[in-house]
């Protein structure tokens, strides 16, 4: 049974409460909003609307929006990574932890969290339609953002996933996932487990992770319609197949944990039609 209200409405209610509280503390520190959910669950669609809502609500505050996908390695660098890990099928293409430019991500986060100063910063933009759907950077590969950033929205499908200690749980993560798990530590240390990052978390929690196959196919059809290039349905299925070991290892624990944000976390349960069936809030600080 659906709960009254959309993902966007519940998220705005949550953010309005906690962003107001954050700025009332007059800490002069940026607030990060993490939005995490499986591919196709509505992260980008709702994230853009949330960006507009916060920008319009908090006049005089600088609000920036980005996706972890925008920090993918260039097509050339991704090919080099695939060659380096040629025996690892999970790293043969963009998507999983390890396929992003973490130096670039660290530099951008440093601009957000660094000394409060006037100026601008550039956020990268990634074009998934390039190279027959393999993705890459186009000539318009960045967007200028005004500094200092007061609210930084970052969305991504694995934000909040907690890597496992391989020495303790070796049987769970042998093989290809061992490389991905090792790389995930770098993301968690930089973002959701970084003590310098004060954050609110929004989790879109699907009732069946297999929904990703249908959602991601819908997305690719839209990309082809808009840009003329993209993956075939079979390519999409093979693409999503590479994500499933990651979901199987981390996703249920992540959703149950309800701790994506260091300040507070909103967990919204959605069904195959992306209708809301549950809403839970957990305050941390």
SSE order and pairing:
Blueprint: H1 7-24, E1 31-36, H2 43-57, E2 63-67, H3 75-84, H4 102-113, E3 119-124, E4 142-147, E5 151-156, H5 176-190, E6 199-206, H6 211-227, H7 233-241, H8 244-257, E7 264-270, E8 276-283
Parallel strand pairs: 1-5, 1-6, 2-5, 6-7
Antiparallel strand pairs: 3-4, 7-8
InterPro entries: P-loop_NTPase
Family: Belongs to the GLYK kinase family.
Subcellular location: Cytoplasm; Nucleus
Walk me through what this model shows:
The chain is of the alpha/beta class. The protein has a domain at 7-67 and 149-283: P-loop containing nucleotide triphosphate hydrolases (Rossmann fold, 3-Layer(aba) Sandwich), CATH 3.40.50. It contains eight helices and eight strands, in the order αβαβααβββαβαααββ. The strands form two sheets. A six-stranded mixed sheet has the order 2-5-1-6-7-8, covered by helices on one side. Helix 1 (7-24) crosses helix 2 (43-57) and helix 6 crosses helix 7. The longest helix has 18 residues, at 7-24.
């Amino acid at each position: 049974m659906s709960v009254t209200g959309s993902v966007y409405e519940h998220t705005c209610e949550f953010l309005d409460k906690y962003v107001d509280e954050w700025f009332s503390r007059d800490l002069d520190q940026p607030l990060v909003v993490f939005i995490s959910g499986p591919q196709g669950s509505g992260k980008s669609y709702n994230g853009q609307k949330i960006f507009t809502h916060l920008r319009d609500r908090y006049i005089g505050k600088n609000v920036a929006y980005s996706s972890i996908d925008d920090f993918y390695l260039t097509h050339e660098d991704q090919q080099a990574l695939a060659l380096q890990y040629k025996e690892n099928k999970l790293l043969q293409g963009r998507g999983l932890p390890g396929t992003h430019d973490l130096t670039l991500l660290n530099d951008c986060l440093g601009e957000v969290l660094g000394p409060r100063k006037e100026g601008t910063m550039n956020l990268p933009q990634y074009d998934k339609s390039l190279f027959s759907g393999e993705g890459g950077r186009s000539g318009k590969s960045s967007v200028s953002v005004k500094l200092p950033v007061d609210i930084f929205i970052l969305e991504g499908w694995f934000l909040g996933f907690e890597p496992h200690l391989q020495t303790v749980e070796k049987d769970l993560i042998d093989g290809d996932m061992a490389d991905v798990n090792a790389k995930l530590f770098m993301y968690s240390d930089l973002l959701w487990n970084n003590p310098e990052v004060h954050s609110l978390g929004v989790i879109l929690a699907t009732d069946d992770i297999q929904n990703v196959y249908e959602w991601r196919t819908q997305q690719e059809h839209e990309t082809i319609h808009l840009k003329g290039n993209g993956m075939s349905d079979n390519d999409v299925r093979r693409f999503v197949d590479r994500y499933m070991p990651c979901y199987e290892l981390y996703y249920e624990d992540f959703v149950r944990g309800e701790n994506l944000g260091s300040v507070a976390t909103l967990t919204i349960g959605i069904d195959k039609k992306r209708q809301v069936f549950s809403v839970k809030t957990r305050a941390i600080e």
